[in-house]
Amino acid sequence: MNVLKDMLQKFSSGSNKSNYVARIVLETIFIKRFLIFIAAGIWLLSGLAIQSFGQAECTAWGNVTGIRVDGELMKFETSLRIVYKNWMEYTQTEKEKQNPTFTRNGSRATITTLLDSLSVNEIVEDAGIGKASISVELAPVADTTMQGAYFCIELPNEDFSDATFKFTGKKPSPQDTIRNQNHRPFYERFILIPDTAKGIIITSKLRRLEVSVKEPIEIHIIKGNPFFGNGNTQIYFTMISGKAVTGDTARNIFNIKVSGKIDDKPVDLAIDTLHPGREFDGIGGNFRIQNPEVDPEVINYCLDSLNVAWGRVELPWFNWQRDETVNPLEAARSGNVDERVAAAMEMAQRLAKKNIHIILSVWYPPAWAVEGKLSFGPHKSGEPFGNPLNQMKMRSIIKSLGSYLIYLKEKYGVSPDLFSFNESDLGINGRQTGEEHDEFIKQFGAYLASKG
Asked: Which residues of 17-47 are buried (b: 16+ CB within 10 A; e: fewer)?
């Protein structure tokens, strides 16, 4: 790490432009060899087979997005889904829609979460070259009326549009092998009769994917429809059919094996020495204290050991002005400053003293500044996060945020380089349209200019 740190420092401090590109090339080659050396050493010391490095790509919420074979990602995506009446609605495991717990031990990942009324325990483990084992346990915590709960595999059209589907572990039938285009589309899926089998083999020109379970299971194959926003084929493996009852438990292990065409064409890399681009300033990151027990240690290490050039600190707007009728600047000047606000301002001052460029960002707006009841997550399945900023309160919003910047400069001597709302397009946690954001920039910029 010291070698890498020294090289990063040389990047940021180098002033000889003529040697800039050559330095990048030489040091990039060295970094690559250095990292390969480290990786090889870890592999030799571990004594583990190569598949233990984690061929299955597993997200923090439990969806497997594919399995790597010789470095090539064989794409598909698993999820757990609860389907409601007549297959017209469903909720699934997905990014930022649940509160999962993720742990990894070697090649095994364990995910626990709550999907609607189902407690989920999932274990994803590499099982060999191109293989993964996914163990799923569902335990209803409340009686819930549903069409069913399913382990789902979605196949990307780019790799499986010409696929055939062959059921395994069932009595021979003319319907054992079916072509993709013969399946009913999304909007007709509620009339489908499932097949019961121990598995399925999906074969296309580019890919082969095989799924097997120990005991026969009901399997739905549903061809997506682009008209409804998703043209990918989905395979549903039934875990709970009908109403979920508290106290029941559904378990199964899904063994997945993939293979296919590997893109091994050589890659040519050309470097344009006449247009080297911008110099590398250094690294950047969030310096926002979310966990007081562990964050300070991480922050101290980064600031002491790394070449930090940009830092994003929080403007705790929710804590700065909870009540619209209270003037937060007057309150702060009289010594009434929230503990979290003081900590955020001190962090900004600490970065400023190290000549680190500062981005000041808002995560949580106060209740008075948004539309509707304040929410720190998605309202319903499929709806965006957070709350829209109240456009009727924009004058008060701008004054409130501006007062924070005024006090930060008065008390701590800090003038941030940039300001932002955190992911305002998504609403994490204050939401704006592109047009609203554009208008805010104009109004807020004018207000700040008027205050010097």
From this structure: eeebbeebeebeeeeeeeeeeeeeeeeeeee
